[in-house]
Amino acid sequence: MTGLMARRLTIENTLSWKRLEMLRDANDGEGPLAEPLRALRGRLDLTNVGLMGHSRGGRGVAWQAADIRAADLPRGVRLRAAVPLDPADLAVTAHDLDARMLAQPVCTPG
Known about the structure:
Structural class: alpha+beta
Number of domains: 1
Largest sheet: 2 strands, parallel
């Protein structure tokens, strides 16, 4: 993986986790989304989160779901599913993704 691709995936990963933090805070009645999302307060189960992405987003989802990034998840969030749809350039090394993710099926249109 090139340095540019790794940097891009790291940035996208950080943004995804920040969004989950904001949803968690709104669910707790805190943060900038608390008022706009007040109807969701206390209704979100962030211990059962799934990610889905297509093409480059599919590769990003697979990258984010790797065990080596589990410690990066926001407090109170548990990733339970990842669905990479037709991921772009999934030819990666074990250094990029853990072995468990490399063995997972991928949804690719027939």
